[in-house]
Automatic annotation (TrEMBL):
Residue ranges of every copy of the HTH lysR-type domain listed in the record: 1-58
SUPFAM superfamilies: Periplasmic binding protein-like II, Winged helix' DNA-binding domain
Keywords tagged on the record: DNA-binding, Transcription, Transcription regulation
Record family assignment: Belongs to the LysR transcriptional regulatory family.
InterPro entries: LysR_HTH_N, LysR_subst-bd, WH-like_DNA-bd_sf, WH_DNA-bd_sf
Organism: Oceanobacillus oncorhynchi
Protein name, per record: HTH-type transcriptional regulator CysL
Pfam family, one: LysR_substrate
Taxonomy, superkingdom: Bacteria
Gene Ontology molecular function, alphabetical: DNA-binding transcription factor activity; transcription cis-regulatory region binding
C-alpha cells in the first residue's frame, strides 16, 4: 500500500469529487483515479460509486475511512518526529495563540525563546481565544496565549499582561502639527464604530459609550487586522489594544483620538496550560522575564 493512495482516498472522500480532489492535491485528475483504483485493487474492494459528476463512498469506503485517517496521521506524526530529531530537537512545545498576539508580540518572543532553548521544537497554531482553551483542554496544544479568560475550571490560568485600549481613526492626509485635534463627538456622529474585534471588553465599553453618545452606528468586525485595514481606508474607527497598533501609529497610518468622557478598559493577556510539564515551565519562565509578571 502506498501512503499517497491513502492521502488521495481521504481527500476524495471529503470532497466527493475527483476533479476537486485533483485541484486540492495539485495533481492531474487521471492520477487521482489511478490512486483510487490501485488502493481498491490492493485492498480488494470498491470504495466509491458514481452519482453524476460526484462520487459517493460505498459501505466499505465508509468503514475504511477512519482507519485510513489513523494510518495517515500516524505516518505524518512519525515522519515529523524523525525530521525533528534529525534537526537536533529533543522536545516539542505546541503553542496556540490568538491572531492579535500572533501579529504583534509573537515573532520576537518565539525568536528569543528558540535562541535560548535550541533543543525545543516550537509549533505555533493560530486560533481564536475561545478555540484555544478548548484545544488546551483536549490536549491538542500544550500552552495557550489568549485574550479571554477561559471558562474551563480544569485549566491553569494566569494573567500575564494588561494593555491600554485606545480609540483610533484614519489619517485624513492633513498636517498633524497644524491640524486641530480630532473630536471624538464627530466620530460618533459621522462614522461607523467597528466593534467586537476583541473577545473581552466590548460589552462593557459599548454600555459606557451608549450612556455618553446616543447616536452610534456600529459594525461587528471580529478580526483586529481587518478592523485596522477598514480604519486605514477611512471606513470608520474603533477601540483597540495599543499593543496591536504600534507600527500603524508610528507610521501615521492611524491616529489616536483622545476620549476624555470615557474611561477606557484594559486588554488582558492570559497564559493557559493543562499540565505542568518541563516545556511549559520553560516557556512560562521565559514569559515571566519578558513581561516581568
Amino acid at each position: 500500500m502506498n501512503i499517497n493512495w491513502l492521502r488521495t482516498f481521504i481527500m476524495a472522500a471529503e470532497s466527493e469529487n475527483f476533479r476537486k480532489t485533483a485541484e486540492k492535491l495539485y495533481m492531474a485528475q487521471p492520477t487521482v483515479t489511478a490512486h483510487i483504483k490501485q488502493l481498491e485493487r490492493d485492498i480488494g474492494t470498491q470504495f466509491f460509486s458514481r452519482s453524476g459528476r460526484n462520487i459517493i463512498l460505498t459501505e466499505a469506503g465508509r468503514r475504511f475511512l477512519p482507519h485510513a485517517r489513523l494510518i495517515l496521521s500516524s505516518y505524518d506524526r512519525g515522519t515529523h518526529d524523525l525530521l525533528a530529531w534529525e534537526q537536533g530537537y529533543k522536545r516539542k512545545l505546541t503553542i496556540a495563540i490568538s491572531p492579535l498576539l500572533a501579529a504583534s508580540i509573537l515573532p520576537y518572543i518565539i525568536r528569543q525563546f528558540m535562541e535560548r532553548h535550541m533543543d525545543v521544537e516550537v509549533i505555533v497554531q493560530i486560533k481564536e481565544s475561545m478555540e484555544i482553551s478548548e484545544m488546551i483542554e483536549k490536549g491538542e496544544a500544550d500552552l495557550g496565549l489568549l485574550q479571554m479568560k477561559p471558562v474551563q475550571g480544569s485549566l491553569q490560568v494566569e494573567k500575564i499582561k494588561e494593555d491600554d485600549v485606545i480609540c483610533v481613526c484614519s489619517h485624513d492626509g492633513g498636517d498633524l502639527e497644524s491640524s486641530p485635534p480630532i473630536d471624538i463627538h464627530d466620530l460618533f456622529e459621522n462614522q461607523t464604530l467597528f466593534t467586537y474585534n476583541h473577545p473581552e471588553y466590548w460589552d462593557d465599553l459599548l454600555n459606557a459609550i451608549h450612556v455618553k453618545y446616543h447616536k452610534v452606528r456600529t459594525m461587528v468586525v471580529t478580526q483586529v487586522h481587518i478592523t485596522k485595514k477598514f480604519i486605514e481606508e477611512g471606513l470608520g474607527f474603533s477601540f483597540l489594544p495599543k499593543i496591536a497598533l504600534n507600527r500603524e501609529l508610528i507610521e501615521g497610518r492611524l491616529l489616536e483620538v483622545r476620549t476624555p468622557e470615557l474611561k477606557l478598559p484594559k486588554a488582558s493577556t492570559y497564559i493557559v496550560t493543562r499540565a505542568d510539564t518541563e516545556e511549559n515551565r520553560l516557556f512560562q519562565d521565559f514569559l515571566g522575564e519578558y513581561f516581568s509578571y
